[in-house]
């Protein structure tokens, strides 16, 4: 456990697009509570303007630049937890992770950069174990619904049948949301780096890139539409699967193979039934294949950067407010009668409104809840599974409901 600190949670990146939603959530949910929180960023003027804009007078504000290691060290020693939305994480996040590991400060983020996560684990796992820093990446739409949905189903399956499910499938049922310049920048940054480090694309494609002890039975992510009898309809590849599936497989390892050594997990988008479902699934599959490949070419990246949102920009407040997500996960039981399904639902844009709430609750959980884990790199489910399954429905409108 970290020693006593001036603050419980510092939000670093508060002036960014997602950071602003995190600040809104914290101000609504935790102003006047016993939680001591503060905001930080690289630009003091912007931070002060944010205090006025969000009416959070009296909040403490700290300047800390990713490129200045001393400012990172100073920041992490003020607080029990750093919540960071400063991305691309592979570009801006390494010094912060190093400082948290060194000083025993808990940490949560929104990275989807699996190659960077592996690099950070390799570099700082032992230091974090020694200092007690609990470091939990991927605490947003990637990958909380996947990771906690799976953990929830396995807990139920073990209670019902005495054994874990050997195969869980995640299918998006419906979601509405946009994307921000920061998300786009993270994707572009990875493609740019891959030009000089092509091995990075192999790491990203590796279904077990985040496992260190053993590999399992899963192969590469599906890249084509297929009919899924368990959902009685057509399924297209899901763009976030390349992040979420790695996190779920890592959770299994960190939970001592609670899901089993022969556990399989995959993700897809449910596109409907009959010929219409087949056409939609194939069209979505082609779109996603293009989205995965085209940004590898510099001219395409330059074109996208010209016309798509810039860092700091994203969906409009109305779009964020009117977004939602609905995902169904299905766990195969020892007999078909034992199969279990959970609906995971959230209000507001999945990547920003809902993500901000999931990330903020993860930070508060790290600061205030009794956790069973020590220092090191964890996944949301392996570090905070039981606690978040309570916090998210109670506080963040993210629900997990079992159904037949
Ligand atoms: N996994 C998920 O579900 C999910 C969802 C949403 C976002 N994300 C990820 O979250 C990250 C942020 O996205 P976003 O759209 O919020 O990005 P954004 O609007 O561009 O915000 C980035 C933030 O980083 C700050 N920053 C940039 N350089 C810095 C430096 N040298 N030192 C300190 N701070 C610095 C910016 O400060 P200024 O304001 O001063 O420019 C800003 O506050 C991205 O990596 C994105 O992929 C993930």
Concise summary:
The protein has helices at residues 17-30, 44-53, 69-76, 89-92, 94-103, 114-131, 144-161, 181-196, 199-205, 241-254, 274-293, 298-307, 317-322, 350-368, 380-395; strands at 7-12, 37-41, 60-63, 79-84, 106-108, 134-136, 167-176, 226-228, 233-237, 264-272, 324-332, 340-347, 376-377, 398-403.
Tag the structure with descriptive keywords.
seven-stranded mixed β-sheet, Rossmann fold, seven-stranded parallel β-sheet, alpha/beta, 14 strands, 404 residues, 15 helices, binds NADP nicotinamide-adenine-dinucleotide phosphate, Dihydrodipicolinate Reductase, domain 2
What does this structure look like?
By secondary structure, the chain is α/β, with parallel strands linked by helices. The protein has two domains: 7-141 and 353-395, NAD(P)-binding Rossmann-like Domain (Rossmann fold, 3-Layer(aba) Sandwich); 144-350, Dihydrodipicolinate Reductase, domain 2, CATH 3.30.360. The protein is 47% helix and 20% strand. It has 15 helices and 14 strands. It has helices spanning 17-30, 44-53, 69-76, 89-92, 94-103, 114-131, 144-161, 181-196, 199-205, 241-254, 274-293, 298-307, 317-322, 350-368, 380-395; strands at 7-12, 37-41, 60-63, 79-84, 106-108, 134-136, 167-176, 226-228, 233-237, 264-272, 324-332, 340-347, 376-377, 398-403. The strands form two sheets. It has a seven-stranded parallel sheet, sandwiched between helices. The chain has a seven-stranded mixed sheet with strand order 8-9-10-7-11-12-14. α6 (114-131) links the parallel β5 (106-108) and β6. α3 (69-76) crosses α5, α7 packs across α15 and α14 (350-368) packs across α15 (380-395). The longest helix is centred in the C-terminal third of the chain and has 20 residues, at 274-293. It is globular, with a radius of gyration of 20 Å.
């Amino acid at each position: 456990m970290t020693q006593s600190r001036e603050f419980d949670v510092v939000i670093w990146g508060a002036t960014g697009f997602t950071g602003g939603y995190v600040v809104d959530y914290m101000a609504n949910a935790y102003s006047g509570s016993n939680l001591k929180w503060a905001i930080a960023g690289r630009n003091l003027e912007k931070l002060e303007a944010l205090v006025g804009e969000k009416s959070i007078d009296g909040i403490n504000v700290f300047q800390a630049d990713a490129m200045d290691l001393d400012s990172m060290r100073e920041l992490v020693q003020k607080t029990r937890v750093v919540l960071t939305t400063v991305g691309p994480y592979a570009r801006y996040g390494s010094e912060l992770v190093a400082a948290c590991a060194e000083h025993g400060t808990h940490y949560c983020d929104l990275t989807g950069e699996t190659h960077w996560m592996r690099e950070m684990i390799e570099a700082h796992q032992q230091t974090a174990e020694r200092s007690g820093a609990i470091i939990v990446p991927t605490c947003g739409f990637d990958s909380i619904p996947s990771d906690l949905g799976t953990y929830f189903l396995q807990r139920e399956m073990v209670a019902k049948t005495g054994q874990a499910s050997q195969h869980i499938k995640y299918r998006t049922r419906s979601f509405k949301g946009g994307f921000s310049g920061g998300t786009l920048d993270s994707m572009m940054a990875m493609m740019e780096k891959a030009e000089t480090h092509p091995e990075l694309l192999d790491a990203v494609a590796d279904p077990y890139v985040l496992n260190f002890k053993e590999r399992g039975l899963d192969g590469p992510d599906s890249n084509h539409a297929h009919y899924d009898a368990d959902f009685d309809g057509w399924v297209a590849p899901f763009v976030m699967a390349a992040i979420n599936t790695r996190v779920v497989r890592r959770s299994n390892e960190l939970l001592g193979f609670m899901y089993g050594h022969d556990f399989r997990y995959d993700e897809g988008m449910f596109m409907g039934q009959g010929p219409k479902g087949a056409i939609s699934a194939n069209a979505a599959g082609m779109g996603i294949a293009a989205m995965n490949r085209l940004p590898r070419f510099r001219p395409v990246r330059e074109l996208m950067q010209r016309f798509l949102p810039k860092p700091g920009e994203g969906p409009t407040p109305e779009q964020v407010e009117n977004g939602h997500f609905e995902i169904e996960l299905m766990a195969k039981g020892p007999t078909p009668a034992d199969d279990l399904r959970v609906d995971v639902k959230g209000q507001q844009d999945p990547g920003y409104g809902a993500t901000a709430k999931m990330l903020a609750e993860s930070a508060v959980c790290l600061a205030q809840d009794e956790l069973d884990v020590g220092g090191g790199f964890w996944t949301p489910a392996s570090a905070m599974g039981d606690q978040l399954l309570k916090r998210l429905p109670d506080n963040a409108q993210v629900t997990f409901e079992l159904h037949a």
